[in-house]
Design brief:
seven-stranded parallel beta sheet, alpha/beta, single chain, three-stranded antiparallel beta sheet, Rossmann fold
Length: 332
């Protein structure tokens, strides 16, 4: 039986997760944050009122050109089909050069925005792209409306006890202060019904890694989606970042990442918290981390999941570890 997987996140973190999960199953649904307000996505949401397409584009590209996906394409249709897939994936990610109105826009962002306008529904546009390019899986927005991140940030005033409210994903990601808490605007955004269904029907739900305050935590700030996570009987795995991220989480320990997530969703239950063995040495620090994982009812699973010498998750290693965790549960 094919495993149904829902992967929650955004940006480069979700790209790596989707590449990994595609080794395990063709039935992978990406549930993507829609709060980006920078670059091409920010310009398109401001000019057209669309949900920001950038992270959706990245997720589509991941499912389109993951090594396991290309292997399936070659088996179905031969090497020429693989080359076409690679060409279109490269084109989809290509950014226009020059200095005019199109400069900096990826082709995929414009195509997604255009399809959403023609069909009157961004989800229908995403589904049509998956069909046209013969891509397995599905890409869905977390919400059906563009969202804004609002954060309480300390360290910007002479008095460190005073917090200032910062609005916008780019502003939050680049603030020199310390992010204490984030919210979504509107505060009770509508979830995308297909995303809720994907979570509730999944055999496995994966959250993270990624920008902690702008790509991971927002997934538990949509009330309907948090409730879907709580209702789902799926196995749930949280991947913690390999290192603090400049701007959002400078100086954060791995344990601090868990405490911050728990502060935003203290009713969330997770089965496994996965960390890279090099980021948490054995001893007292790992014992503290085990207790932090226990806040979610989770076990701490430590393994080699990083690309050597880089703070990047290795999709092959991640897939192998997730497969081990799933096999371990089946054999209990």
């Amino acid at each position: 039986m094919t495993m149904r997987i829902a992967a929650l996140g955004g940006g480069h973190g979700l790209y790596a997760t989707l590449t990994a999960m595609r080794y395990l199953s063709p039935e992978v649904t990406a549930v993507v944050t829609v709060a980006d307000d920078g670059g091409s996505s920010g310009r398109l949401r401001a000019e057209l009122g669309v949900i920001p397409p950038g992270d959706l584009r990245m997720a589509f590209a991941a499912l389109m050109c993951a090594p396991a996906a290309l292997a399936d394409v070659e088996q179905r249709s031969g090497p020429d089909a693989v080359r076409r897939h690679q060409l279109w994936a490269e084109t989809f990610q290509h950014r226009f050069g020059g200095y005019g109105a199109l400069a900096g826009h990826p082709v995929g962002n414009l195509l997604l925005s255009g399809l959403g306008e023609v069909l009157g529904d961004p989800i229908a546009g995403l589904d049509e792209l998956m069909r046209v390019f013969d891509v397995d899986g599905r890409v869905l927005p977390m919400s059906t409306v563009p969202l804004q991140i609002e954060a309480d940030v300390s360290g910007l005033e002479s008095d460190p006890r005073i917090s200032r409210v910062i609005r916008g994903q780019v502003a939050v990601a680049t603030t020199p202060g310390k992010v204490r808490r984030v919210r979504l605007m509107p505060p009770d955004p509508p979830a995308a019904p297909p995303a809720l269904a994907a979570i509730e029907q999944a055999d496995l739900v994966v959250l993270g890694p990624g920008s902690w305050f702008s790509s991971v935590i927002p997934h538990v700030l949509v009330p309907e989606q948090l409730e879907a996570l709580r209702r789902s009987d799926s196995r749930k795995i949280l991947f913690v970042n390999l290192a603090p991220e400049p701007g959002e989480t400078p100086g954060f320990s791995v344990e601090r990442h868990l405490h911050v997530l728990h502060a935003h969703a203290d009713r969330l239950r997770i089965d496994h918290v996965v960390v890279d063995e090099s980021s948490v040495p054995a001893g007292r620090e790992r014992e503290h981390l085990e207790r932090a994982a226990g806040l979610f009812g989770a076990t701490l699973d430590v393994g080699d999941v990083a690309v050597p010498g880089r703070h990047v998750h290795d999709p092959v290693k991640v897939a192998a570890l997730v497969n081990q965790l799933c096999d371990r549960e089946l054999n209990r």
